[in-house]
Amino acid sequence: MTTTAENRQTQSPAHDHAPEHTPRMHMAKLAPEVYKAVLALELAARKGLEPSLVELVKIRASQVNHCAFCLDMHTKDALAAGESVERIVQLAAWEESRHFYTEKELAAIEFTEAVTALTEGFVPDEVYAKAAAHFEERELAQLIAVIATINVWNRIGVTTRMVPGHYKPGLYKS
């Protein structure tokens, strides 16, 4: 079986892609305790939440944070779990594509952006209230944990320059 990089090297000159970048470091090997702790947090955070909602949240946070590795991972996991290509593609423009999502998903997506960006220095009361209206308190706590965890992964991925394109769906599922 050939790798993505090998496939790119054998393509005709009209379809040449830029070479893959190299990662700066392999965090899992250099700080295994930290990596395992974040993975344990990841597994605990998503309990009790709808898997498709969790993947939409992870994809949206990863779009906001420009984490290519996490986008690769979570779009593949979402597709493997039955999510539609259309809903994944429209997620980047969810405000103009509201009709693709439920009100609960929209509240989670908006909440994800507010928690991820923190551009005003806080999560606006209106955004929190919308999320609280669609999630029971325990679910909302879990959602906050999912958003916080994907932000940790995004920061690790972007900082260490994890390379997208090689992830296989379900690799890190419990």
Question: Can you lay out the helices and strands and say which pair or pack?
Answer:
Layout: H1 4-10, H2 27-30, H3 32-45, H4 51-65, H5 68-80, H6 85-90, H7 103-117, H8 125-134, H9 137-160
Q: Care to describe what's here?
A:
It is a single chain. By secondary structure, the chain is mainly alpha-helical. The chain is built from nine helices and no strands. The N terminus is likely disordered.
State the gist of this model.
This protein has 174 residues and is an all-alpha fold. It contains nine helices and no strands.
| Rg calculated over all Cα atoms | 17 Å
- Biggest sheet features: none
| DSSP summary: helix tally | 9
Calculate the terminal CA-CA distance, rounded to whole Å.
27 Å
Looking at how many chains there are and whether they match, the oligomeric state comes to single chain
Mean pLDDT, rounded to whole units? Answer: 91
Shape: globular
Tell me the helix content: 55-70%
What share of the residues does DSSP label as strand, in percent? under 5%
Order of helices and strands: HHHHHHHHH
Unreliable segments (pLDDT under 50, ≥5 consecutive)? 1-12
Total count of strands: 0
How would you classify the helix and strand content by structural class? mainly alpha
What attributes does this structure have?
disordered N terminus, mainly alpha, 174 residues, 0% strand, single chain
